Amino acid sequence: MTTTFDASVRHSVCPHDCPGACALNVEIEAPDRIGRIRGAKDMPYTDGVVCAKVARYAERAHHPDRLTTPLKRVGAKGEGKFEPVSWSEALDTVADAFKRAAAEHGAQSIWPYNYAGTMGLVQRDGLERFRRVMGTSLMGGTICSTIGKAGWKAGVGSVIGTDPLVMAEAELIVLWGMNAVATQINVMCHIAKARKKHGAKLVVIDPHRTPTAEAADLHIAPKPGTDDALACAMINVLLSENLADREFLAAHCDFDDEVERHFADKTPAWAAEITGLRAEDIVSLARLYGKTERSFIRLGVGVSRSRNGAAKVHAISALPAVSGAWARPGAGALLATGDAFAHLDRTLIRGADHPTSARTMDMCQIGRVLTGDADALKGGPPVTAMIVQNTNPAVVAPESVLVREGLLRDDLFLCVHEQFMTSTARYADIVLPATTFLEHDDMYTSYGQTYLQVSRSVISRWGESRSNHEVLCALAERLGLAHEGFELSEWEIIDRTLRASNMPNADEVLAQRWFDCGSPVSATPFAGGFPTADGRYHFRADWASVGSDTRNLPRLPDHMRVLEEASDAHPFRLVAGPARNFLNSTFSETESSKAGEGGRPIAQINPADADQLGLRDGVPVELGNRRGRVVLHAGITDAVRPGMVVVESVWPNEAFVDGMGINALTGADTVAPAGGCAFHDTAVWIKPAA
Description:
Layout: E1 8-13, E2 23-30, E3 33-39, H1 52-55, H2 58-61, E4 71-73, E5 82-84, H3 87-105, E6 113-114, H4 121-134, E7 138-140, H5 146-155, E8 172-176, H6 180-183, H7 185-198, E9 201-205, H8 211-214, E10 218-220, H9 227-240, H10 246-252, H11 257-264, H12 268-275, H13 279-291, E11 295-299, H14 309-323, E12 332-334, H15 347-350, E13 360-362, H16 366-370, E14 385-389, H17 393-396, H18 400-407, E15 413-418, E16 430-433, E17 442-444, E18 451-455, H19 468-479, H20 490-500, H21 506-512, E19 515-516, E20 572-575, H22 591-596, E21 602-605, H23 607-613, E22 620-625, E23 628-636, E24 644-646, E25 682-688
Parallel strand pairs: 6-14, 7-13, 8-9, 8-11, 9-10, 11-12, 14-15, 15-16, 20-24, 21-23
Antiparallel strand pairs: 1-2, 2-3, 4-5, 4-16, 17-18, 18-19, 20-25, 21-24, 22-23, 22-25
Helix pairs in contact: 3-19, 4-19, 5-14, 9-12, 9-13, 9-14, 12-13
């Protein structure tokens, strides 16, 4: 007798590191198998749309290369030779290594390392509880949005802005440093509504002619890292041509004669010299923005990924203060919505009730940490044991030559908990198979919309995989770590967190599928003032409130000249932007995503530069600087400016000709004022590969 399984549709939430946190409808074909994934049509932000890579998630969830059993290394580090072991042996091995490290060098020689491979709070942030309770070294999670958030908060006061749904009511949308076609397709859908309803125009500001730029009515392509000068010159035009909202400036900003005199010097001609744009084009853009009643600026995180990134974001955030867009329906600006969820009590999840005085090391500097740099180690002991969850630092961290050198250390014990044998997992002593979001429970906030969501597992586990939470609980038991969070199930933690936050309980949120936390993120959030100490927008940036490194940061919006500029030795500026078919290094395992990116890493080079270098389309090319060198293939295109090279990422190291990925070239120097990584601020040389 054949048993059939009735197909059904289950609710879930996309867990990946994208602002959307899309509500999903997942087709269930069998107890252990999904079909197509679609966006929930009744979710206001998702509105029935998901990106293609998530729509075809079955290819990834049921991929034959997914890890199914714990593995123990039997070959040399990085060689990729492993043998299966039981969960008991694997967990005992990890616990014993941690005990040995703590006994020899103290608990701070252990560095649990994670990031946002899942954005689910229980599975992502439980490692912080583990760190705090065991007393290990802490991790500064600076790799993504720290720079941008600092710049925004220095003026606005909090990481909130205009409700993203307002984009659909705008007459002008400016996407600044955001390739939304690749990184947040929902934004393009809301723009399409605005175009249909209001005839809205789309302006894209990006040095690279991305697919988003090609969809725009106007593409502005400044030199990389010069957006602060462009924003200042636009403010100059708004003030000098009577396009500023003087009433709003007087009532809700620290604007005065000193600020006005400062911007008087930031002329379009001044900015043209810095940005490489024509002065008349800057004037035209400023007039378009200033004369459009419903103007909405949507910033991407990419605009912040340079050494002057915080200054750039602060300067851009000043535009809606000058124009008064903050106070008008259908207008405003948004970087992120993270503080819409500030009232969520994460104490249980993160172990915040367990004090610690351990050092905090910058995750961006993992290469320096693992190779013994005293500054990166903060004067503490060497790191001799690690567990890695939710990230792939051998590929995504900067200075990856140093990262590889550190991971190859024989005296470093490494456990990697992963879904696939990633570049990082190849260096592990123990590899543990991890569940996907379809196979565990979790709770999700967002940094691009305002809905809190919960989801339960919808299919059975792949092989012997276990969730992050389960692994940490098992290690805590072996290590004698006592905390309530290690005794509860994922669903119990979700429920208690919601109750502690005076919100509907877990079952209630699941029943209604999402809960809007957007009260501080309204259609006109700052019409009556800002969430700063004095209630005003700060043209005089409050850098000290957002970070300790305030050196060289401009007091008023200005171009901050700290970039890794092109030189005779390194004449090209590298931008390592996100690929449409990957999400950081996730999805680089699937054939459809690799095919969508052309099957191999490509260095996009302007035709004029290619002619000067003697390069043809498709030939191997070498990029390098003092940090390292990589070999990939040339793609000759006028989508990039002369003097610029774009490598859309993040491909595995193994996809490059010499086995070293693009982040061999990016630097890990701390970015003012609070840290972060300047992924789009790298000078390189280019030559034909030998």
